[in-house]
Amino acid sequence: MPMRDLGAETARRPPIFGPEGEAALAELLARQPLLAFDFDGTLAPIVARPADARLSQAVAARLAALAERLPVAVVSGRSLADLRQRLGFMPTHLVGNHGAEDADDPAASAAWRATLDPLRAHLARHQALLAAAGVTVEDKGLSLALHHRLAPAQGPALDAIRDALAERPSGIHVFGGKRVINLAPAGCPDKADALLTLVARSGAGSAFFAGDDVNDEPVFARAPPHWLTLRVGRDAASRARFYLDSPAEMALLLDRLRARLDAAGGARHL
């Protein structure tokens, strides 16, 4: 099978606020879907310090209203403990650590935690090198993140990360993000695995998923044709079907979903 031209797909990807997007939303809601969202860069804007990120009251209130009618999930790279304090509402499902930490299945999630202990010890030996380059290490339990957004210079920071990971323990999956390098146990669930599990668990007839980063692409790539996938930001190659310009438009999109549910007498999820 020939490789798909992601650059061409980006050029063709239509906005969700347009005729194609409106038709896709109508078709989606007719299937009683699960509504799922990434957090950083999707529901909340990217900020310089991850600890400062919060969901706005406007978006939280709209999501809470939708969660009374359809299953709503937040699927984030953050840990569940970190994520819960930032939402301002209670979603139907909550998944953290890029898909590995499932609030509905804590036993399965805990089984992956110990597999990162050798990596923790390895990074501790490189802590001084990373800190000198402005790289901070965040341990999220089931994954680790090497943040270089605030580094004085990106080149030396990336060099320090490369050196620190050169002889890392085996069995570690390394993947990028927006000014961050993520590390997780190889073989643990990703966001696509998590979404497929949530759809089956909830009995939903389809799924909507919005995300903004490379770790959301597994969902876009594996989504069945009847799912609706949305990339936040129009400047990146992506397998998502539609795009939204920025998180600032999320409240408007949630209003559009609720209005369509009202017009169609949409189901209530209890």
The gross shape turns out to be globular
What is the level-2 CATH architecture name of the largest domain? 3-Layer(aba) Sandwich
Helix content: 25-40%
Name the poorly predicted regions.
1-11
Strand content: 15-25%
- N/C terminus separation: 43 Å
Number of domains: 2
Give the number of helices: 11
Tally of extended strands? 11
Mean pLDDT: 91
The largest β sheet comes out as: 7 strands, mixed
Q: Using the coordinates shown, work out and report the CATH topology of the largest domain.
A: Rossmann fold
Q: Briefly, what CATH class of the largest domain?
A: Alpha Beta
**SSE string, helices as H and strands as E:** HHEHEHEEHHHEEHEEHEHEEH
- Going by CATH, the homologous superfamily of the largest domain would be HAD superfamily/HAD-like
Radius of gyration: 19 Å
Give the strand line-up of the largest sheet: 4-3-2-1-9-10-11
What structural category do the secondary elements indicate? Answer: alpha/beta
Task: Tell me what the structure shows.
Helix content is 39%, strand content 17%. The protein is an alpha/beta fold. It has 2 domains: 6-100 and 192-263, HAD superfamily/HAD-like (Rossmann fold, 3-Layer(aba) Sandwich); 112-185, Trehalose-6-phosphate phosphatase related protein, domain 2 (Alpha-Beta Plaits, 2-Layer Sandwich), CATH 3.30.70. The protein has a 7-stranded mixed β-sheet, with helices on both faces. It has a 4-stranded antiparallel β-sheet with strand order 5-6-8-7. Helix 3 links the parallel strand 1 and strand 2. The chain is globular, with a radius of gyration of 19 Å.
